[in-house]
Amino acid sequence: MDKSVEQSDHVIPEAEWDSPMFNLAQQQFLQASKRMDLDENIRKRLLFPQRALITSFPCRKDKYSEVETVFGYRVQHVLTMGPTKGGIRYHEDVSLGEVSALAMWMTWKCALLQLPFGGAKGGVRINPQLMSRSELQRLTRRYTMEFVNMIGPDKDIPAPDMGTNAQVMAWIMDTYSQQVGHAVPEVVTGKPVVLGGSKGREEATGRGLVYLIQDAAYHVGIELKNATAVIQGYGNVGRNAAAFLEQLGVKIIGISDVSCGLYHEKGLSLGAIDDHIQEHGVLKGFSEAEEISNSELLELKCDILAPCALQNQITADNASYINCRLLAEGANGPTTLEADRKLRERDIFVLPDILGNAGGVTVSYFEWVQNTQEFAWTLEEVNNRLHNIMVEAFQRTLLRSQRDDVDMRTAALIEGIQRVSEAKLLRGVFP
Annotated catalytic residue: which of 121, 191, 199, 342? Predict the structure, then answer.
């Protein structure tokens, strides 16, 4: 089949399971399970998701006669721990493998943070930037209907991810509520506060990452008020992490987005950058800093490097040139297994993604609890609870790392996998 036809028609690739992200997630799991001598039956059961649904459905364009067929996904990795939890992403690279990897990581993340959820993830293979607001609303409502029997406040609770936001969650909530005949705010999290969203949810992932950076910096001997940081990815996670680090006295010397990287050895003015983005949409063209490439940004000398963009950014090719003391992963899967080994050899302390970016799902849990209780918490309550849960998980992971002589990623995985394994063994096999 001609490649141009295949891409334009959105044909599902034959090797859709065989994605780099899913391969990485499986290899990380297998490495940790071997180290902990995991029961063979449990290992086989956790290697693939328990449920995966792929749909193709029509999306009507603003020009009424134009209809595009798109592919939607929802994967539930583990159903043992309670309802499943995970975001929905709109991106042109969404595939079954990518969504399955994210669902698996969400399982370990929830177990590590001791949240009563299994991992899930969903997505639609589209470029949301090429769609109007009305087209996105029609797409979202149709996606919800395709999966309406799979989601629910006691079954599977979606949340925002790449390419989606609070407005998308509001459309999902409304569509689901229309089907059951009454408002069900607890069917999604990350929605607007006026519809039952939690205060602090939007900045939770970046805030949680910074809570961990504070503890990790103390552990490795970095004084934050004299430290420098580089943030790869200036979206929701990266922008909030940069702002919270700046409040602690950290000098932000490098940031990036899809258009370019920016560097200034004396520190970037985040306020001026935000104003530039408000006017131009991207970092490119900002005159008060030097424009650099993504690879140059990752190799800048700094105390803290926070990859908050896409997967597979730190690899065997560039791991030897990473020049930080603390690598704090805000993105999912930014570091390959080969790079992990090199970073450990170079004594770079890594805050792994399943711990580092867990602030989002933690406050999503708070939102779900508030909705089911019909009682709203203050922002101070949310942030205090988030801090306590994140720091406690960090301390458990650090203790496991030191006790078992493993890196932090392996320690975090073992903590999460062990909790899921215990739950599966206790529940047994039916029939």
Answer: 121
